[in-house]
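Appendix B, record 7
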Amino acid sequence: MFRDRLDAARQLAERLEHLKEERPLVLAIPRGGVPMGRLIADAIEGELDVVLVRKLGAPGHPEFAIGAVSEDGNVQLEEQARSYREEVLAKEVERQRERIAERRRRYTPVRPPIDPAGRLVVVVDDGSATGATMAAALATLRQHQPKRLIAAIGVAPPDTVSRLEALADEVICLASPSRFYAVGPFFADFAQVEDEEVVRLLGERTP
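Structure tokens (predicted):
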């Protein structure tokens, strides 16, 4: 059990401290990963940005993830997605891509995304249940040819960690319990992160 996201971020920063000399690019998955990414970027003297991915919700049950889509259109589908017609999935993908575009305009209105090419990249999130969102982020970033790609997460079940290890050069996961139902119960304080906080944290600069 973590006290909150910053507790998990401090522990991840300790595991990543050896990267300080490489000035890594820390890419946080909004919104919960952004407070963690800010702390980690400051601790390891990295540069912070967001990697924008959105969960694809099942028709009629939007909280049930059947996949994820990234900013450049990379789609990761879960096995359950086979139950739905292609046109239904395409509509959900387009809806989430519009949400991604809206977030980019809101989060970094005066600059484009930071290019990960040739950089040591650390992708941060508070936790991952199915791994779909983190997998979409890693898959799209790999296409930009980073020097090295690391996934840093607070908690995820063992099968999700294995899935991510096939996509990243290294996965750092603080807790990997076999009994796993959701990310939130592993945090004493799992308060929602608002867009205003994301904008503020992205506007700060690492000393």
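Remarks on this record: The CA atoms of residues 74 and 140 lie 6 Å apart. The first strand starts at residue 25 and ends at 28.
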